[in-house]
């Protein structure tokens, strides 16, 4: 018999010192309130909020769940109001994507796996999908154990991220 309680976020507020646009706050409210959470709800909510901001180029976004106030409770479920501290930070753009250890395909073919163009807003979701496409590309040539590993290099002075992808 499991005593794990489902946590549902009914409302989200942010601290007065938070620097987040109203557009992003609305986006975060929509994403966070349609999910169910478990024991680590604060961590999960902060991670989801950070993920959403990173998909919009806020690569170094800071999100902290400060508290969750229970609004209503039943034996298996809690409806809560969550307070977040958020700082979007700077919006970053993709400088370039380069590859190392690629002996099977030329870099130009590997680069095509990533739909994001250089100088576009750095969207971590597009980067993840690019990695999925890399795996498909290598699998189509019989390489099913490919492990792409990336390293990011941020240039805070100009707000860019360069991505180096190692092929193992």
Briefly say what this structure is.
The chain is of the alpha/beta class. It has helices at residues 22-33, 41-54, 107-111, 124-140; strands spanning 6-14, 36-37, 62-74, 77-87, 93-100, 148-155, 160-167. The strands form two sheets. A four-stranded mixed sheet has the order 2-1-4-3. The protein has a three-stranded mixed sheet with strand order 5-7-6.
Structure, explained:
The strands form 2 sheets. The protein has a 4-stranded mixed beta sheet. A 3-stranded mixed beta sheet has the order 5-7-6. The longest helix is centred in the last third of the chain and has 17 residues, at 124-140. The protein starts with 5 loop residues before the first strand and ends with a strand. It contains 4 helices and 7 strands. The protein is α/β, with parallel strands linked by helices and 168 residues long. It has helices spanning 22-33, 41-54, 107-111, 124-140, and strands spanning 6-14, 36-37, 62-74, 77-87, 93-100, 148-155, 160-167. It is globular.
Short key terms for the protein model shown above:
168 residues, alpha/beta, four-stranded mixed β-sheet, three-stranded mixed β-sheet, 4 helices, globular
Strand percentage, roughly?
A: 35-45%
Distance between the amino and carboxyl termini: 44 Å
Main sheet, how many strands, which sense, barrel?
4 strands, mixed
Report strand order across the widest sheet.
2-1-4-3
């Amino acid at each position: 018999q499991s005593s794990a309680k489902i946590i549902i976020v009914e409302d989200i507020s942010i601290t007065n010192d938070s620097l987040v646009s109203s557009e992003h706050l609305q986006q975060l409210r929509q994403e966070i309130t349609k999910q169910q959470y478990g024991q680590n709800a604060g961590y999960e909510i902060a991670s989801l909020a950070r993920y959403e901001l990173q998909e919009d180029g806020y690569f170094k976004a800071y999100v902290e769940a400060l508290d969750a106030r229970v609004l209503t409770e039943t034996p298996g479920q809690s409806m809560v109001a969550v307070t977040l501290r958020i700082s979007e930070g700077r919006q970053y753009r993709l400088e370039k994507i380069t590859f190392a250890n690629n002996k099977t395909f030329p870099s130009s073919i590997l680069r095509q796996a990533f739909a994001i163009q250089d100088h576009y807003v750095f969207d971590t979701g597009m980067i993840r999908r690019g990695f999925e496409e890399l795996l498909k590309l290598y699998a189509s040539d019989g390489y099913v154990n490919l492990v792409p590993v990336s390293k990011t290099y941020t240039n805070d002075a100009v707000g860019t991220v360069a991505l180096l992808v190692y092929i193992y």
